[in-house]
């Protein structure tokens, strides 16, 4: 890291907290789904699925696919299920 620059909150995140923590991924997926919910449930699930496919690191996608989906809100859960059934990541 360049001298003089510091990440808010201290040091750079460890692998455990780098976006692959299931609780954090669940939070992110739910947040994306809530932001897209205005489109209607099916369109929002499609858009959430597409967002995850396009912007999430393959390790993040693999972690959310392999994790417990019980904390996902309905739109996010549908999006993750669509991601899984499409044979992605």
Describe the structure.
There is one protein chain. By secondary structure, the protein is an all-alpha fold. The protein has a domain at 28-85. Helix content is 57%, strand content 0%. The protein is built from four helices and no strands. The radius of gyration is 15 Å and the shape is globular. The N and C termini lie far apart (30 Å). Residues 4-19 have low confidence and may be disordered.
SSE string, helix = H, strand = E? HHHH
Mean pLDDT figure: 84
Uncertain parts: 4-19
What best-fitting shape do the alpha-carbon axes yield? globular
Question: Span from first to last CA?
Answer: 30 Å
Q: How many E-type strands?
A: 0
Q: Percent helix among the residues?
A: 55-70%
Helix-strand category: mainly alpha
Task: State the gist of this model.
With 89 residues, the chain is mainly α. The chain is built from four helices and no strands. Helix 1 crosses helix 2 and helix 1 crosses helix 4.
Quick tags:
globular; mainly alpha; 4 helices; 89 residues; single chain
What is the topology?
Layout: H1 22-36, H2 41-55, H3 58-66, H4 74-85
Helix pairs in contact: 1-2, 1-4, 2-4
């Amino acid at each position: 890291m360049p001298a003089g620059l510091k990440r808010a909150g201290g040091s750079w995140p460890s692998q455990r907290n780098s976006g692959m923590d299931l609780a954090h991924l669940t939070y992110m997926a739910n947040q994306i789904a809530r932001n897209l919910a205005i489109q209607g449930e099916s369109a929002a699930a499609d858009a959430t699925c597409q967002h995850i496919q396009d912007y999430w690191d393959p390790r993040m996608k693999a972690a959310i696919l392999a994790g417990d989906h019980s904390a996902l809100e309905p739109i996010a859960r549908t999006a993750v299920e669509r991601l899984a059934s499409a044979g992605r990541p």
